[in-house]
Amino acid sequence: MIFVSARFIEGAACGAFFPAAYSRLALYTKRARYMGEFSFLINAGLASGVAVTGYLVHTNIKSGIILFSILTFLTIIFAVYHFIVPSRTIGKIELQKKVSKKEYSKSHIFTSKDTRGIWIISFILAGSSGVLVSLYPEYGIDTLSKTELGISISLLYVSTMISSLLASYMDTGYAKLIKRGIMIATVGIVVTIYSSTLGFFIIGTGSGLMLVGLPIAIASMKVEKGIAMGVYNTCIYAGLALMPLMAGALAKSVEIKTIFLMTAILFGLTIFLSKD
């Protein structure tokens, strides 16, 4: 119960952090660059955290939890300092945020055709990755060692890091980033059927482009940024939770290879939801 409670609190904290972080970054003029760097750091943290904890677990099984607690405590100190001593930049951003709340209708977030497309794309993007990560250990049980499987999945995060950082410096509109990301990731899902390392690398490359393009798309729309970014992150986590669950239930009667193909088709169809 302690473990489950701790995970719930951790998830609630992440759910509160991401919309606030994205909505703040959306108010900068260099938001594309900052969102790309933000995505890079998220995935760098995921990759390094898993790697470091995997190493520390040989010394003490609780080492990862202790490290997490220490890092979280340091983050609290940093956050409290900036709350007490706000910079001029932060004060200006908060002023802009208050103005934007008065300008835009909240209902537009749900009724707009463009935003509905983003919510669906976000859901399927996260869900597709979740399906592959959850089912691939069983799919590759006879062909991949645990080390090879770990390397393959880690490439998903590494390539996402690289492509999201590169995308932040590209002079490309968010629509093109999203479309290219969908096409690349769709190809990657199909490739995973035959090659885990190459497939996951390609998926990560496409995902990195989308993880920059989607927040920029939201930031460019005339919607209240805080609520919009909250809905965006809700769709991401909903996809991660629900699609692997549905795929797992489907795996009882359908081959995993077929599920991967179905996932690729579903993902590929989202290109028609992307704004031109």
TrEMBL record:
It is found in: Cell membrane. It comes from the Archaea. The keyword Membrane applies. Its main location: membrane. Keywords: Cell membrane, Membrane, Transmembrane, Transmembrane helix. One of its GO terms (molecular function) is transmembrane transporter activity. It holds the Pfam family MFS_1. SUPFAM superfamilies: MFS general substrate transporter. This is MFS family permease. It comes from Methanococcoides alaskense.
